[in-house]
Amino acid sequence: MHAGGQGVWQARMVQALGASVTMCCVLTGETGQVLGHLVGDEGIEVLAVRRSGRGAAYLHDRRGGERIHLAEAQGDPLSRHDLDELYDLTLRAGLGANVIILSGPAGDHVVPADVYRRLAADLRATGRLVIADLSGERLTAALRGRVNVVKVSDEELLADARITENSIEQIVHAMYVLREEGAGTVIISRAERPMLMLSNGTLSEVHVPTMQIADPHGAGDSLTAGVAATLASGGTIEEAVALGAAAGALNVTRHGLGTGRAETVRTLRDLVSIYPMTDFPAITQSLTPDQLAQRVKDR
Question: What PANTHER family does UniProt report for this protein, alphabetically (predicted)?
Answer without folding.
Answer: 1-PHOSPHOFRUCTOKINASE-RELATED, ATP-DEPENDENT 6-PHOSPHOFRUCTOKINASE ISOZYME 2
